Amino acid sequence: MATQAAPAAPAFAYRTAPSAADAFAAWRAANPQAAPVHADPWDVSRSDIYAEDRWQPVFAQMRARAPVNRIAQSPYGPYWNIVSHKAIMQVESLPDLYSSSWKYGTITIGDPPPDADPQLVAERQLPMFIAMDRPEHTGQRRTVAPAFTPARMAAMESEIRHRTAAVLDSLPWGERFDWVDRVSIELTTGMLAILFGFPWEDRRLLTFWSDWAGDVELTLVRELSDLRFGLLGEMVHYFQRLWAERLKAPPAGDLISMMVHSDAMNHMTPQEFMGNLVLLIVGGNDTTRNTMSGIVHALDRFPDQRAILEADPALIPNAAQECLRYITPLAHMRRTATADAELFGQQIRAGDKLVLWYISANRDEAVFDDPDRLLVQRPNARRHLSFGHGIHRCVGARLAELQLRILLEEMHERRMRVRVRGEVERVRANFVHGFRRLEVELERR
Fold it and tell me: Nearest to residue 428, comparing CAs of 29, 42, 105?
């Protein structure tokens, strides 16, 4: 059981390599004949269109012609594309009909290989509260929700601002550096370490585990899937030590303490423990990290909008929402139909997989004027679906918004203008959407 007190930890070397991106790239180079085949032009599960930033036209075409359409064959099996804002809102508003439960699948497009050992598949299921239906979802979500209340956010603001200022003040001016590594990863990993009460010197392990947990494409390759599960096992090993420490201590405000002292979560199976760790780490790391990178890339791409924002810092809260819309750090979520239903004229069957493409909904012309442009004064920027909708809306949304607002405010305070000056490497994935590397230079405005 994940909740049992662990003995005093022996010396243990936690792996920090290879990165998930490097491992998948090496496999692709060594196995070109095994590359996933995407025959349907509307099969947007292919990762190359996101890595090359050319996903926009195919989603626009689907929104215009068939906002709910079925892909009969893909590397991930058959699935329904749900690409309009209205259709996604409809699906997320019916959580009993369109289930999030791990019992029917996962919350992403990926599934275990069809020839996988059923016992092994069962052992590797990762129940987490985002992948649960009511009432289990309700109880576990309520356990961690107090960490993200408005009062907690107000109490954390000073610390977040201090850490953000320290990171920005450490940056070189007039020299090229990687914004992803020096700013986005450092700020979000530090925030995760604080939320978990995680040892500061090991905080980069959280980034390493997050990348391995969030790369859906790894499920297509048996050996990489095995490596992924092994690395997540090391993550659980580390957190079991923290769990044992918090079990002996009085209740505190960190997420591990909240779980260990909660009736809803203190009897989790090892799989549930791993699943909820994955959820909190990926949710707290990848989304904010990629938006922090996307902000500087987007403002550099749209200098007129950067000028508007520089002239009026009162626009920063709205600009943060607009950046979340424009960037969409998680491209999709998945649901599974529990019964036959009609959805916008299409007949959905029980057991069908529905993929909700937030990345498309946030560019829906029916909701957002001129959707492919960043507009910091956009009046309805908050209608974005980057945090989802309904009972599964991101529990940490307030914290993400706070971190982004403070970053923009502290950049404004320093008259910091970030210019893209070198390599831009995007995440090659259909789930996490963002940047692996973003070379920039700072200049004063």
Answer: 29
- Low-confidence stretches of the chain (pLDDT < 50) are 1-10
Could you give the 3-state DSSP secondary structure of residue 47? Answer: coil
- Paired strand residues for 441: 419
- Could you give the C-alpha distances from 79 to 264, 270, 361, in angstroms and in order? 33, 30, 17
Residue 217, helix vs strand vs coil: helix
Least Cα distance to 241 among 196, 210, 279, 190 occurs for 196
Other CB atoms within a 10 A radius of the CB of residue 198 amount to: 22
- Rounded to the nearest 5°, which phi and psi values hold at 68? -125, 110
Phi and psi, residue 252, nearest 5°: -135, -175
**DSSP-derived secondary structure for 339-406:** S-EEETTEEE-TT-EEEEEHHHHTT-TTTSSSTTS--TT-TTGGG--TT--GGGS-TTHHHHHHHHHH
Tokens of 199: 């040892």
Q: How many CB atoms lie within 10 A of CB 368?
A: 22
Q: Which residue shows structure tokens 């950046």?
A: 323
Using CA atoms of 45, 287, 389, 229 in order, give the dihedral in degrees to the nearest 10: 60
CB 348 within 8 A of CB 354: yes
pLDDT tens-digit readout, 280-304: 887 777 789 999 999 999 999 999 9
Give the model's pLDDT for residue 138.
Answer: 83
pTM of this structure: 0.91
* C-alpha closest to that of 401 among 381, 420, 415, 416: 381
Q: Which of 393, 232, 240 is nearest to 324 (CA)?
A: 393
User: Tokens standing for 32?
Assistant: 């070109």
Burial class (CB in 10 A: 0-12, 13-18, 19+), 220: buried
| Whole-angstrom distance, CA of residue 169 vs CA of residue 173 | 10
Give burial (CB, 10 Å; 0-12/13-18/19+) of 136: middle
Q: How far is Cα 360 from Cα 365, in angstroms, rounded to an integer? A: 10
